[in-house]
Write a structure and sequence with these properties.
The protein has 12 helices and 9 strands. The chain is of the alpha/beta class and 291 residues long. The protein has a single domain (4-289), classed as Alpha-Beta Barrel (TIM Barrel). The longest helix has 24 residues, at 175-198.
């Protein structure tokens, strides 16, 4: 019998009241086990308030170096942010800049540490790390992420090894961009897997949410069930009760309400049970390993 386990995670926790409420409901009533907290997001305090009433919600930090605000004041990271403390908005340009300007690396490490510390100072337990737009897998940034996970005793890190062929079978639009994105992140994740393993960290074997980002609908998730491979698959989404102003500002095309409804879907739950797939989270996996 195949040993297949799946983790459902909501990213950007704290970005919007509509997203925060969806996370709480999808955890209480649906398949959602994990949430990735953006500690500098405009509604992070509300997210933390909700999380305190959800003791089984497995929380992690959604490390942010793009399309968001810094935890540190601009004077401490003057080359990373603008005078208002905002990170760059364009992922590709920022990625190249972080790679070709080594002087940024000490500032990046200080900022990532500050984000982790800001989360820990609230009294919550952090079980996993990942990055906004998966930037934590950037070759120049990843070593700092792995080192900080060990320093702060955060046991798990997300890898982004997506079977883009499975995604194309279910969502065939944009094949070239999906293939390119899948191949790039598979390459990045190979190195990340080696570093995470050497550091003694827990990580997922497979992932979905990368190439069909913002469209993790019920039909798509149910279609994935038969395509899940042995091991641990993390499926991440960006659910919300509605697309409010903050969400529309960043991702106007995301089908957030549909993603929320998918996490509550009885059809999804029945498909997982019929296939013998265990719904789990990083905390349960960590506790079983005795990490």
């Amino acid at each position: 019998m195949l040993n297949r386990r799946v983790i459902f995670t909501a990213d950007d926790f704290g970005l919007s009241p509509a997203l925060n409420a969806a996370v709480a409901l999808a955890h209480r009533q649906g398949a959602l086990g994990c949430a990735s907290l953006m500690v500098t997001a405009p509604h992070a305090e509300q997210a933390l308030h909700l999380a305190r009433d959800l003791p089984d919600l497995c929380l992690g930090t959604h490390l942010t170096l793009i399309q968001g605000r810094a935890a540190l004041a601009p004077r401490h990271i003057p080359h990373l942010v603008d005078p208002q403390g905002n990170f760059p908005q364009h992922p590709v340009a920022a990625g190249w800049r972080y790679y070709f300007q080594p002087r940024l690396l000490p500032e990046i490490r200080r900022e990532l540490a500050a984000q982790i510390e800001a989360a820990l100072q609230t009294g919550i337990k952090l079980w996993h790390l990942n990055g906004h737009l998966n930037l934590h897998l950037h070759p120049a940034i990843l070593p700092a992420v792995i080192d900080l996970a060990r320093k702060y005793r955060i046991p798990a890190v997300r890898l982004a090894r997506e079977d883009w062929r499975a995604t194309l079978a279910l969502a065939p639009d944009g094949p070239l961009s999906k293939a390119a994105q899948g191949l790039i992140f598979a390459w990045l994740s190979r190195r990340a897997r080696r570093l995470a393993r050497d550091a003694g960290l827990i990580y997922n074997d497979h992932l979905f949410g990368l190439t069909n980002d913002g469209r993790m609908t019920e039909d798509y998730l149910v279609g994935l069930v038969s395509r899940l491979k042995p091991g641990v698959t993390e499926i991440y989404a960006h659910p919300a009760l509605a697309a409010d102003g903050e969400l529309m500002r960043w991702t106007p095309g995301y089908r957030r309400r549909e993603e929320f409804e998918a996490l509550l879907s009885p059809r999804l739950r029945q498909a997982l049970a019929a296939a013998g797939i265990e719904v789990t989270d990083y905390r349960k996996i960590v506790e079983k390993t005795g990490w």
